[in-house]
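BUG: 3D viewer hangs when loading the predicted structure for this chain

Environment: internal workstation, default settings.
Expected: structure renders.
Actual: progress bar stalls at 90%.

Input used:
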Amino acid sequence: MYENPAVFSSKDFSVSRRAAQFLMPRIDFSDPSAIGRAERLVRDFCVCGFIIFNGEVEQVRETTQRLASISEFSLLFGCDVERGLGQRVSGGTLFPFAMAQGAIDDEEFLKRQAVITAQEMKYCGLNLAFAPVLDVNTEPRNPIINVRAFSDDPAVVSKLGGIFAETLQKEGVLACAKHFPGHGATLEDSHAHLPRVEKSLKQLMKSDIAPFREAIAKRLHCVMPAHVCFPALDPLGPATLSGPTLRGLLREKLGFSGLVISDSFRMDALGGEEREEENILAAIASGVDIVLDPRDPEGFLERCAEEDFFQDHACGESLSRIFYAKKLFASGGEEVFSSDFERNAEEAGEISRRSACVLRGGALRGRKVSVFHFGTEGTEDLLAGLREGLSEGEVAVEKSLSLSETPELRDARSLVCVLSTAPAGWTENSVIPQAIMDCVNSFSSFSGEKILLTFGSPYPVAGFPFFDTVISLFDSSRTSGRAAAEILTGERMPTARFPVKIGS
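Structure tokens produced before the viewer hung:
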């Protein structure tokens, strides 16, 4: 792949242009000044490319075309697409979290998701996927990886992650696997803190690093290191800033010769804005090829672009990797047709339905239920789907209650409790608040049939062993709500299996 790169010398182009290739700022379409700023970064500095946030399909397409037309070099346009283009771009297809694919464990379904993701990205002019997640989620309390991982089994993550990356690249999109050497054992969110993983190198190699090792063997082109400290590898700092981790372990021991792109430099694990300049230089010195999402790219380039640092041999090797990746994935010239977004959404819905897992129980014993939910943001669609599915299955919803209401369940025969939790940066959304835990536990004394439905993270079910029926799905869509109802009404027989270990 990159076996013998032609190393760029200081004579190939100006030092300031060299330095700018190491930076990939953001375009956030919710910021009215974002496009104008991006044009200046391309025209005046010649940055490597951009990571995309928000926006709408046609808006993103128009912007990438405009920026590509004014850039001296090809541009990399990246996007977080673990769940498809719809994760970041309105109008794109949104899939369930990766753990849904771990539950289904069907290579064809996974390949189809990767193909759809790549096709929709290419229509928008995007050529760099910050996916797949190759983290092995061995910590059930993990607040930021959780259902973003395929499984807690390294073999499953290796297989599915490898297929996803390989398919994206065959479709012409650069796959960036994350978060090396593994974020799945953390108890903290690296958006807000610097997590530490106290595992030995032997333990890391056996579990966390195994999926990366196998993906590299299958010609993975790009890796994102974690903003996580691994004292067994380097006691001085996170993997992002660690020469022993990136140059020693990733490149020398594992033989990786592709691109290394950092995680966002706006995450607080790296110490905040006042340390950004220092951290950018440290990351590049440690083996990062492209620094992602710096807060002040203009300021950094104005102050640092002429430093001798950017003229050394190692930086020349980085530039060779960057331009080779651009040659493979950002060369342009290919005619791209619009995707069938409506059909793609239907395929995403089928993945939601197929991923339903039953821990115990199954169809309802009665035909009347009371539904208790917690009114959290984003649950409206799944509750609507649940009600629709129950109604079509001739099950009556007698009451629909939320946490703010005192449940009057003395006359109820069946109680359906709905929990929706999923990871998101800086939020700890995957952790159930104690007030909700207490409320759910109070249902243990209910004498009727007790059903627990989880959407998103499946791990909360371990804390409530008294439910007669437990069903988990991996997103909070309307389709997932209907799928749960279809199992309760006996209309659907689940075939998926929990891809992680769940307590009794």
